[in-house]
Structure formats: structure tokens, C-alpha cells
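Q: Sequence in, structure out?
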Amino acid sequence: MGSSRHFRVWRGDAAGGEIQDFDVEVNEGEVVLDIIHRMQATEAPDLACRWNCKAGKCGSCSMEINGMPRLGCMTRMSTFEADETITITPLRTFPVIRDLVTDVSFNYQKARETPAFAPPAGVEPGEYRMQQVDVERSQEFRKCIECFLCQNTCHVVRDHEENMPAFSGPRYFIRAAELDMHPLDAKTDRKDYAQAHQGLGYCNITKCCTEVCPEHIKITDNAIIPMKERVVDRRYDPLVWLGRKIFRRDELPATTTATTPFSSARGPEGPAVGADGKLEVAELLANHQGGPSPFGDEQEFPLATGGITYVHPEPEKN
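A: Exactly. Output:
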């Protein structure tokens, strides 16, 4: 037997709207998205809400519940007090289309602007060799379901719409970090691109994006801060600056001891350590941030040569 609960839902469109009150039956084990469906079935058949999988994997039902950006399908009614009024509003950072549906095309525009993965020239399908140890750091970022809750809660664009043209947001900072950590990505200026074109410097690491991530990706600690550190090292470290002035990139000695070009980006012995026996801070490895591989830690993944079509991106023209 369910109980009647009080809800307040924003109704309107781009021209404006208002909060409307509803008293809806709530049953044990239900989530907020269940309640929205019951509203549509019993009291507000024209209530607009975007959803798809109802399993926390498509990211469609993003909304704000009692002021907190959340997924409607992953917010259980049991987390609220029995007499608590639940207020449901659309994502505040993006333009409202209707009711709880917002226009998130800003994110897809930023996705198109992000340079794609660029494999090394001359490497054919079937020649890639990667092990679990090569992707441990970047695997975590592949869990992103593109719910855009991190984009919505980031105050750089939430409070300052004028920043949107110059700021890609945390979703695309983890994309840049993922590619920067990828052992086969041949594009070497991911850090500079993030700083110059994605607005990495706008972020002041308040960790609000990490707090709302439904996949528990440590966006700030594992992606944004390491990228910021590397940008600072390259731009402001006097020794690095002097080295760039003295040597060209192609004159610098190789830093890997790998016996084959693509067997492991860090070589068979792992990353180099300093005279004190410690790794550099930027090279610290987290243990399975994305979870253990279902294939085992030592599994290699050569791609089959048949049935694979891949066109290498053309080199950028100056």
C-alpha cells in the first residue's frame, strides 16, 4: 500500500513557467522517474520529461531534485523523509525546451570541437598492442554516460553564460585527459589544447562536478588537476622552458625502454624512478580506477585485420 506524497514540478517552456503542486501516490522501492510517469498517467499527461533506459546508463533523465543535479531513475524515494516536499526542476545551465526537457546541444557542439583520437601514422589495424596496465588511468573516464550533470553544476557556465564559447566543461576535460593518457594517441598537444581552446584555466577545482557524477568518476582529482599540473610544468618550469629553447622535440632522447614500439607505452619495467626511488608526481598510478578488466590484467588486445575499417585522420594543415 502506497502513501500520498507532495511534489512541486516546474512547468513551462522557453517563454517562462511556474512551479505546480501535485499529490502523487508513492510505493515502496520507487524512484523519482516512476513518480513522474505516474504524474503523466494520472494528473499531467502533457508533462515533458526525457528518459530512455531507466537503468542509470543512458544519462537522459537528468534533472534537479531539491536543487541537486541528479538522475531521476537513480534517485530513490526512500532517500527523502516521509513528510518532505520534493521539488523537481530542469537543469538550470541549459535553455529550457519544455517542462523538464532542456536543450543540451552545447555539449555536442563542444564534443565536435574536441580533436579525435589520432593513432600513430603507419600503424595498421591488427598491430595495436595494449595491456590493462596501459589503460588503467584512462579507463575510469570511459565510464561517462554523458548525463551532463557535471556540465550543469559547473559554476563557470552555470553562473556566467558568457563563458560558454571559451569553456568546454568537465565532461570534455576528462576526454582530453583520457586521450592524453592513452599510450597510442599520437596527438601530443592535448594539454596545450585544453588550456588554449577548452578553457582549462577557468576551472578553479571546487569539485562540484565530481560530487554530482553518478558514475563516481573522480573528475577533479584524476583528470583536471593532473592536466593543470602538466600545463604548469610545461609553461612555467624554468628547466623545462630552457630545455625547449635549447633542444627541438626530435632531438630529445627517448624516455621509454620499450622493446617494441607498441607493446607497452612505459616499457616492460614500468615508469622510470628518480634517484630517491620515487616516481614523479605526474606519473603516479591509481589501482584500477575504472575497475578490474573482465579479461584479466595481462590480456593483450590485437585487433583482427579482417572486417575492420579505419581511416587515419589527415594531418593538420597550418
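The first strand starts at residue 3 and ends at 13.
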